[in-house]
Amino acid sequence: MDWFYRHKDVDKYMTPEIKTVEKHESVYSAIKEMTHYNISCLIVSFKEKPVGIVTERDIMRRVALEGKDMRKCKVDSVMSSPLITKPTKTKIDDIINLMNRYSIRRVVIMDDDELKGIITQTDIVRMSNKYIEIIDIVKLYFFMLLGIGFIAGVYLLLRMVI
Questions:
Q1: pLDDT of residue 129
Q2: DSSP letters spanning 67-101
Q3: CATH number at residue 10
Q4: From the first residue on, what is the mean pLDDT of each consecutive set of 10 residues in the chain (162 residues)?
Q5: Would you say residue 74 lies in a domain?
Q6: Which domain holds residue 100?
Q7: Where are the alpha helices (DSSP H) in the chain?
């Protein structure tokens, strides 16, 4: 199964539509944005350059659990930084290894300081499931052919005997 997708470039599977939030905005506005787009993270920017990432988990740990006011707390105080990035021609296998090495769930994809997309663990699981389904269909087809071949062989053998 690894052969099917792990050697492919990340740009085939990343999410190209990235939502951003300026680092000086409130955590509350970031939560509104994430809720509106049904996403779990935002890329934090400063003067249109990505400088970090803020996730639901960051907000839970650094704002909610500490009892901070979401309307007063700024995104840059809870974001994870620096960004861990890779170019679009990085292989999925390298992305998986990077995620494991740094215990992260998202990798930002950039080419020449330009934001191109993001790939998440969820994207990788979806892609894996797609290939598992394809493999299951191929196996079923193979076993059907084997079964038909076996039945045809038995039929021919019986015809020769009878």
A1: 63
A2: T--TTTSBGGGT-B-SPPEE-TT-BHHHHHHHHHH
A3: 3.10.580.10
A4: 65 91 97 96 94 95 92 96 94 92 94 93 78 65 69 71 71
A5: yes
A6: 2-125
A7: 2-5, 27-37, 56-59, 92-102, 121-161
Neighbours of 54 (CB within 10 A): 28
- Number of domains present in the structure of the chain: 1
DSSP labels for 108-119?
Answer: EEEETTEEEEEE
The single-letter DSSP state of residue 22 is: E
161 in any annotated domain: no
Q: What CA–CA distance (Å, rounded) separates 115 from 24?
A: 20
| Neighbouring C-beta atoms of residue 114, cutoff 10 Å | 10
Strands in 114-120's sheet, in edge-to-edge order, are: 85-86, 106-111, 114-120
Q: Is residue 139 part of a domain?
A: no
Specify the pTM. 0.75
Nearby residues of 7 by Cβ (< 8 Å), 6 or more positions away: 91, 92, 93
Cα distances from 72 to residues 23, 26, 77, in angstroms, run 13, 6, 11
46 phi and psi angles, rounded to 5 deg: -140, 120
Name 108's bridge partners: 85, 118
Q: What pLDDT does 134 receive?
A: 62
Task: Report the pLDDT value the prediction gives residue 22, as an integer from 0 to 100.
Answer: 97
